[in-house]
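Submission checklist for the structure archive. All mandatory fields must be present; incomplete records are returned to the submitter.

[x] Identifier: Tubulin binding cofactor C
[x] Organism: Apiospora hydei
[x] Residue count: 395
[x] Sequence attached
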Amino acid sequence: MTTTQVFVPYSPADGLPSPTIHRMSDPKERFYRHFQTEITGTSGYIHACKHNNEVADAKEYIPAYDQRAYGQAIKALTDNLNKATGQQTLSSSATSTSTATKKPRFQFKPRTALAATATQKESTAQQPDLRQINHKLSETTNNHNASSAVASSDNEERDTVSSLPPHDEIAATIKDYNKEIADAAQGNPGVRKPSFSSARTISIYDHTGLHIILPSSASRATASGALADLDSCVVDMTVPTSSSTSGVPFAGLVIKNIRSSLLVCGTVAGPTHITGVKDSIIVVASRQVRIHECENVDLYLHCGSHPIIEDCSGMRFAPIPATYYTGKAEEIGEENQWDRVDDFKWLKAESSPNWRVLPEEARIADDVWQKTVSGSLTSRKEILRSVGVSSRSDI
């Protein structure tokens, strides 16, 4: 068998001298010399396999281009060996009469090719059957829709706190609670108790002369709260935000454009923004309180920071009644800073004329809070008169 001439990946450029002996310390150069010497004398499969393993072991210091060149050299050697072996097999089979069927010819494959084939088979075996997954998902969706259709009719009748339904269910069964409150108010002077069981936030707006008390089921909708455009109303949101009744405090609360009303807002773990309120009383336990453009408002507060007023007048502050302090110290702050008011529009050294502490004799008595305001049987007009709102506005 003649010696195979094979190209190897290193040769000096034209016009440059051959490598000198002191460059032999370079591992790439040493490997090149070794490979050139070994491959020219290779005469069998064992040597070809050996060269393939040597190239694989030298990957750490041989560039990718040289690796490809070495691989091509080994492949050329392997092809020549396969060709020679095939010719010998054909010759022996022609002269032999004892062999009825020729055995398949063995061909040497580089180790990298075998590894790639094994990896491809493994990834194919792990590929999931998408048709079976889609079929199972379809069955699960059909069963879920059938069960939710049966249970949806009883959601509003139960006034208990339970886990939130999935978001898609909420979107499909969302209700306009403000419209229900307004429709029920026609010809009925009683208390409104909207459940907000299918909502994530509480928003009560655009009502006149209503008494609204939120039940415990509204605790699932306290992600945020909003009271706006209310006139001569009484609103009590204590129960769904009280920790004593397993309620959840509001993350934030916005109060805007209120006239001649009493708002008992419960607990707010974040900020409370009060804007455009006149001739009203607000009771709230909040971590922060910001008040803008308000006139003649009494605030009964538990505030974890300094209350801030801006563009306000006739503001009076008092500590929250014990009846309504139901929050936890870690939710709203342990220290009550209700009387450390900062007026952002008053920069003089003397006290701001826009606010003052509500005198104790002028504060609403505890029995009024407990028996009159908290009683659902008391009429709205009687509640407003008992807390003094009726003297500021015609109800």
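[x] Structure attached
Curator remark: The chain has a mean pLDDT of 74. The first helix runs from residue 27 to 40.
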